[in-house]
Amino acid sequence: MVSKLLNRTRGEAFSSVLMREVKQRFLLVDHDHHGRERLYFDNAGGSFRLKAAVERFAQVDAIPDNAERIHATAVELQDIQARGSADLRTILNAQGGSVYASLTASGAMFDMVRAVAENVPGTNMVTTVLEHPSAFDAMSLYADRLGRELRVAPSNPVTGGVDVDAIVGLVDQGTCLLNVIYASNISGAKLDIEEIVRRARAIKPDLYIVVDAVQHAPHGLIDLQKTPVDGINIAPYKFFGCRGSGLTWVSDRAAVLPHHKLAGKKPDYWDLGSAAPWQFAVLTEIVDYVCWLGSHFTDATDRRALFVAGITHIELHERALLATLLEGTPNATGLREIKGVNVFLDHEDLSKRDLILGIGFDRIDCTQAVVEYGKRGVTVYERVATSIYSKRMLESFGLAGTVRVSPLHCNSIADMEKFLRITREIAADIGVS
């Protein structure tokens, strides 16, 4: 049933009743913190917060007790951490391995790359041009430090992603680590992780693979039983949670590679210092929410099944939002048809894209376009080739810059129509009829 749903080319928007309920569970969807009306379409850089996540953060972080004790409150905090660890496995459909929390997902990526690069023999390391700097720079750093060749798969400027052939063609018996991003944070293109893993391991069965899922996790299903990798990270603040947290899972064999840890801890232990139980409590609130959403579409009671239903319908709703932005409605002209507006990397198969798109205007650059949107109560973000977070990716696409538009599933079709009308107004105001 799920596979059939995901094949719907235009997605399936939430009902009006469910849409209202979803919006009510998030903070500041329609207004900023000063009460000013706005559209926040920069969720690829930040993210709307669940009310329950923010409330739970404050509640748990206020507890002064150290979890590494034996009294009742300490045991309660241990239980919170255990539930959160189990819920990361729920999100990933992971079994075994080790879960650890860090200040950021970027820091965790450097940790994982270092552990593999320093301890697994090989002559080369493989990555892609579309990686976030935390992955690409970590791979570059350790390849250079250890005298390994860094092999970089190019992007596909038509799809906005990276072709499977381009990646696996770089893997050989000398590859010690393959590092790939789940979905581009500029184009929204999803990489075919299942096929990448299958074909790369056919070349080298014991190949270590690390995946950056920060961008994709809030938008679509992850299943490590189908994509058995050795490390994967998420950032809860981009997944309806709170800032100051990265959560990571590492496989049984990766977990015992030498890494930074206190000498007295178990070989597979990755946390450094005292745990912050709120990080795990917030993750549980995120999974609770997705499961609540899933309960509207399935009678299942198993937590993973509920999560699958919820994230599947988040994906379907967001696909409907993307289709609306591109194609429009009777109430608003789509981006593809607005004169003076260009949609970059506009691949037709929406099932291969998360809810991110890049646009440009004929007569103003992307930075000025962001300013114009801001004047009209819309927050978007300019990705420019002068930025360390964009240069490598944009140049691979042959672009100098783009206005990145990234709504979230708590936005509605009406929000998309409002954005389209504002976009058309901007195009008209700069002299395009």
Report on the architecture of this protein.
With 433 residues, this protein is an alpha/beta fold. The chain folds into 2 domains: 2-50 and 305-427, Aspartate Aminotransferase, domain 1; 55-288, Type I PLP-dependent aspartate aminotransferase-like (Major domain) (Aspartate Aminotransferase, domain 2), CATH 3.40.640. It is 40% helix and 14% strand. The protein has a 7-stranded mixed β-sheet with strand order 2-8-7-6-5-3-4, sandwiched between helices. The protein has a 4-stranded antiparallel β-sheet with strand order 11-12-15-14. Helix 3 (51-61) runs antiparallel to helix 10 (277-294), helix 5 packs parallel to helix 6 (133-146) and helix 11 packs parallel to helix 14 (413-429). The longest helix has 25 residues, at 303-327. The model has no long low-confidence stretch (mean pLDDT 94).
Fold blueprint:
Blueprint: H1 2-6, H2 16-24, E1 39-40, H3 51-61, H4 72-92, E2 98-102, H5 105-119, E3 124-128, H6 133-146, E4 149-153, H7 164-168, E5 175-181, H8 193-203, E6 208-212, E7 231-234, E8 246-250, H9 252-255, H10 277-294, H11 303-327, E9 328-329, E10 332-333, E11 341-344, E12 357-361, H12 366-375, E13 378-379, E14 381-384, H13 391-397, E15 401-405, H14 413-429
Parallel strand pairs: 1-13, 3-4, 3-5, 5-6, 6-7
Antiparallel strand pairs: 2-8, 7-8, 9-10, 11-12, 12-15, 14-15
Helix pairs in contact: 3-10, 4-10, 5-6, 10-11, 11-14
Looking at CATH, the homologous superfamily of the largest domain is Type I PLP-dependent aspartate aminotransferase-like (Major domain)
The low-confidence runs, each spanning 5 or more residues with pLDDT under 50, are none
The level 1 CATH classification of the largest domain is Alpha Beta
Number of discrete helical segments:
14
State which percent range the strand residues make up.
5-15%
Distance between the termini: 45 Å
